[in-house]
């Protein structure tokens, strides 16, 4: 399990999308990597989740987890936002997400946060 950097460490927000059936697996993976944990250990597994509808159109060389090549697909997905204290935690969380997610190409973004 990853260790948490100090409160002075750079903060990052990891945002990712996952199909609802894979949501808990993806969250467990990023939490095990140290995401969603505040320094001092008072709060862990912290995230914000909202449900929505995603769409994609797999091309000829795609190997989609759901849907079919050449056909527009709509599916219920969850958007998850989680804080990462330290660049190493953010990188480890992304690596864990890439291993846990069922999609051929994971949809995620990492944003560096400013402390005002």
| Assembly of the depicted chains | single chain
Number of strands: 4
The total number of structural domains is 1
CATH fold call: Alpha-Beta Plaits
Mean pLDDT across residues: 92
How much is the radius of gyration in Å? 15 Å
For the record, what CATH class applies?
Alpha Beta
Strand order of the largest sheet: 2-3-1-4
Give the structural class.
alpha+beta
Q: Major sheet, described briefly?
A: 4 strands, antiparallel
Distance between the termini: 30 Å
**What's the order of the H and E elements?**
EHEEHE
> Hey, roughly how much beta strand do the residues contain?
25-35%
Helix share, percent: 10-25%
Unreliable runs:
none
Overall geometry: elongated
CATH architecture: 2-Layer Sandwich
Descriptive tags:
4-stranded antiparallel beta sheet; about 20% helix; 4 strands; alpha+beta; 2 helices; Alpha-Beta Plaits; about 120 residues
Protein topology:
Blueprint: E1 11-19, H1 23-32, E2 48-56, E3 73-85, H2 87-100, E4 107-113
Antiparallel strand pairs: 1-3, 1-4, 2-3
Helix pairs in contact: 1-2
Keywords: Signal
Organism: Mollisia scopiformis
Protein name: ATP phosphoribosyltransferase
């Amino acid at each position: 399990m990853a260790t948490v950097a100090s409160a002075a460490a750079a903060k990052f927000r990891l945002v990712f999308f996952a199909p609802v059936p894979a949501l808990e697996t993806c969250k467990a993976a990023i939490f095990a990597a140290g995401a969603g944990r505040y320094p001092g250990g008072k709060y862990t597994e912290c995230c914000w989740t909202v449900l929505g509808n995603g769409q994609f159109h797999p091309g000829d060389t795609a190997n989609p987890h759901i849907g079919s090549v050449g056909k527009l697909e709509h599916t219920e997905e969850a958007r998850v936002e989680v804080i990462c204290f330290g660049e190493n935690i953010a990188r480890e969380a992304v690596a864990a997400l890439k291993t846990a997610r069922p999609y051929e190409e994971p949809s995620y973004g990492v944003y560096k946060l400013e402390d005002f």
